Amino acid sequence: MLRYASTMLAAVTLGIVTIFAQPVHAQTTEKPLVLKGQSTHPASSNFHLIFKLWAETVEKMTAGRLKIETLPAGAIVPPFEVFDATSKNVLDVGMGPFGYILGRNTATIPMSHGPLYGMDGSDYWAWYYDGGGMKLLDEFYRDVLKLNVVGFPIPTDYPQGMGWFKKEINSLADLKGMKYRIYGIGAETYGRLGVSVVTIPGGEIVPAMERGVIEGAEWINCEEDKKLGLHQVAKHYYTPGMHEPVTGGQLMINGDVWKKLTPDLQEIIKVASVYATTQRNFAFNRETAHACQELIKMGVQMHRTPDEILKNFLDEWEKIQTEHAAKNPFYRKVIDSQKAYAEQIVPFKLSWFPPYNFAGEYYWKNKIYLTKK
């Protein structure tokens, strides 16, 4: 148990009593609780860095009472097994995106990524904490996925680019038949549009491009893609994508482990997840801006994705989404909740917020580096 003590000194000056408190440093003889954790991503990825900062923050906030190991992808289990490993307590803690278990239930899509009815990454996070998303997340884990975990949303790496190609892409016709690495709704939608989609983990993308197994690939953005070395195997980079305005990762605690934690530790875990996500995403925008400039200096040509591709993507996705909602009641429940929230937030921001490009282009129009045809 932590013990606290203080000594009180009283001084009388001009008839006024002033109390000074001298705190004695908290001490503990307790052995720290150590939790074993792993993410689905490489150690250098922003997603894993959030995981690491979260653990460091928890340790500081608990004065060392709780320590969490944050191992990268593959250290204990393969990336696609992190959800099950956390549920079964092979891992105490896991970090992974719902897209890695997309085949379990189509509701993983609106719970994690997608067009989101015009919402951006910040709006999506707000939906969780302000629009009812957390209750749906608990229900999803417990009643739908049947996973013994407690989860917290970790939105990051947003927005994402359409990806890397060895040749220029001027229209949807240029994508059709191409072997293109993408995951989640991107794979489903582009597949319906005639693209030969492939889903492989991040660490396998560059080797697959080198061997010609795939001809194009999306990962995240300039910073993360540069870490993978995608600029070494392709020179044409297209952005934005429409498939992931946000990547909705999940921080998971095994349900039995969670129940054994005291209420203060549970609250620290939640609050630290918000802090770590916010801090890393702030830094990540700056790091990504710098990385884009570095890639251009290395000979990468950055193109604005043709509107025709983005429009076709949204048109096809709405058809797919209607089909999913008709077959899956929980899917319908989630998108109804998101639509209700987006209906308030998006028109408000479109009406009230100054357009980002208005003042932005006033000051920096000559600094825009994407080519557009």
From TrEMBL:
Q: Where are the transmembrane segments?
A: none
What InterPro entries has UniProt attached to this entry?
Answer: DctP_fam, SBP_TakP-like, TRAP_DctP_sf
This protein is called what? TRAP-type mannitol/chloroaromatic compound transport system substrate-binding protein
Signal sequence, start to end: 1-26
Write out the entry's keywords from A to Z.
Signal
Q: What species was this sequence derived from?
A: Bradyrhizobium algeriense
Q: Pfam families annotated for this entry?
A: DctP
